Amino acid sequence: MSGTTLAASRSAARVVGVVTVLAAVALVELAIRGGAINRFIVPLPSEILLAIPRIIVDENVLHRFWQTTQEILWASLLLAVVGIPLGLLLYRVRILRLACETWVAALAAAPIVLTYPLFLVIFGRSATTIVMIGFAAGVAPVILKTIEGLVSTRKVLTDVGRSFRLSPAQQFWKILLPAALPSVFVGMKLGLIFAMINIVGIEFLINFGGLGQLINELAERYDLPGTYGAICFVVLTSIVFFDVTERLERWLRPIE
Amino acid sequence: MAAQRDVSSDRAPAVTATREALLAVEHVSKRFETSEGVISAVDDVSFSIAPGEFVSIIGPSGCGKSTLFNIIGGLVGDYEGRVTVGGNVIHGTHPAIGMVFQEESTFPWRTVLDNVAFPLEIAGVPKQTRLERAAHFVSMVGLSGFERRFPAELSGGMRQRVALARTLTSEPRILLMDEPFASLDEQTRLLLGDRVLQIQQALRQTTLLITHNLTEAVQLSDRVLVMTYRPGRLKRTVEIHLPHPRDSEVVSSDAFGHYLAEIWHDLREEASRGIKEDESRVLHGRGKA
Predict the structure, then answer these.
(1) Residues A43, A46, A47, A53: is their CA dihedral positive or negative?
(2) Which of A96, A100, A125, A245 has its CA 20 to 30 A from that of B152?
(3) Nearest Cα residue to B83 out of B91, A205, B155
(4) Whole-angstrom Cα distance, residue B31 to residue B44?
(5) SS3 A58
(6) Which helix (H) or strand (E) holds B116?
(7) pLDDT in tens, A141-180
(8) ipTM for the complex?
(9) Residues of A with CB under 8 A from a CB of B
(10) Hey, what domains does chain B have and what are their CATH numbers?
(11) Cβ(A196)–Cβ(A141) under 8 Å?
(12) For A160, which residue in chain B has the nearest alpha carbon?
């Protein structure tokens, strides 16, 4: 597929995506107005839309959005800086991989969020606790997918490197890492999902600012349009991070 | 076993590692330990190649051709015998030897030009110089205009040409190719053969081609070495006295047909043995299960 065709199909996909979301929202609006959904449980999307300017002004939502974004940013940096090298270490040291891979996979399924009191004891009631829980929740898929990407690198590519007499460092930077990147990015995206869920969840639980705390406060006030409006900002954070990740991946691996 | 080896040695060419030989393979043997016991993949293989010569090794599947390719290329160690380049014994990979692999080996994350410039990048050649030199080899393999394309945008034949250009960019004294066009259709293979001949004649490139394709071997080579089925030994050498410069038109000549028949006469027995042994192994395996 040529570059122009690829760009055109990506634009078309975005348009279809936006139209689909708008159609779903319109459908919910109709379902609530028609009485199919209880409006005391799910507010009208139009009410949520009207609540957004209010929570921006009254609840200082942009500041909270920025706080949550920063926490996710730090957690994702930790995921990349610690998770990818850990994956590489387990790939290189076979005995370590055989010993630890199952435990790492188990960590991915563990309800890390329930261990938040332990993190509070270690890091105090601070943003560090939130970042570290996000990191701990997301690191397992990053490690596992990094290992998978490195292991599944086609042997012929490393043979090409050997035939050109690459040093071990050159083999890694010029061949292994680029070849493993698609899998590494899958791991990063999964890790980000886990990290974001846990970050917002912990903000909700420990009342330490951010969008999670705002959702908690608005829910306790039974301000449903405001609560859903704040959730929209969580979704926005997620969209921003995924968009940045995808752009980064396309920059590093232009064509698949 | 010893008697078999003697017979094979009688028929195989003597070690011809003369002073002018650029590449010499001397009494090379390789065994692998498998769950079914020790398998002798290559047994006492000796031959040499003079500078500028194009030699093909042909044999049935499983005769150890690719093992020999990996031994000469330095990717497989722990073998008996020795491999020399210019009279010097080599251990492991050697800058004088450039390899083109059977499997698709271009880097999907690099453009054609960046793929071809790869060896120069590793050698630390400045960007502008390496891109100019890479463009020269891209043009040589007939891919001008595709420099900015990625491998995913190319056909299988084009990708193999990129791999060939990448190896040529490292300017190896010996080009080692392992069935580079095996996955391509016959017509494309013939036309790419023409391209390889043009390049070989332009660069006077010493080339060793591993193949199981008779037409390809006769079309391209000055000499064809026929291997036996497992363990792989040299059975016979056939000198190809077809005129140079040569192209795929040569396949319609009587002489070409004569060479094909001559090689097939030797190869048929080995290929039949290979098929029978494979069938026997499968049946035996099923019996065990």
Answers:
(1) positive
(2) A245
(3) B91
(4) 11
(5) helix
(6) helix B112-116
(7) 999 999 999 999 999 999 999 999 999 999 999 999 999 9
(8) 0.85
(9) 1-2, 154, 156-157, 159-160, 162-166, 170, 174-175, 178-179, 181, 252-256
(10) 2-96+172-288 (3.40.50.300)
(11) no
(12) B105
